[in-house]
Write the structure tokens for this entry.
Amino acid sequence: MLPRQLLNFAVFADGGDYKGEIPEVTLPTLARKLEEHRAGGMDGPIDFDFGQEKMEAELKGAGFIAGLTSKWGARQHDATMLRFVGALSRGTSEQVESCEAVMRGRIAKIDPGSNKAGDPTEQTYSYSLSYFRLTVGGLVMFEIDLVNMICIVDGVDVLADVRAVLGY
């Protein structure tokens, strides 16, 4: 079996289609907040899991893009919705599979980059995310909703028991 590779992708922000304007997307790195613990009677340290680390995404724009800056300074934690849709292929058949990432957050940084006559202009838009869902081939791999304390991994809500204890 060969790995699924990205053939092409499209990016949508707040419903706008940015076909041909976004050459690169960085999806969030998922990391857990782990703290080392060792106490008397233990032969070595273990890590306690204290939840999800901050999630961030980044879009690289080819040139000056209208629309991506409209939510700058928004007070809502989920003011902007980003949608990445990709076509994946293993190279073993003519079939392609879908890859979709839905992200909600706010613009954290706009880097206008360096501008030089005769050279392409590239701007970077960084987002602080409060929600992320990754679906590959129709299966939800991750759905993380920080505000509502939901963390679904391969179809299992690993925080359901914690919400139940807290009365959510």
Q: What stands out?
A: Residues 5-35+48-141 form a domain with the Pnp Oxidase; Chain A fold (CATH 2.30.110). The chain has a mean pLDDT of 94. The first strand starts at residue 5 and ends at 13. The radius of gyration is 19 Å.
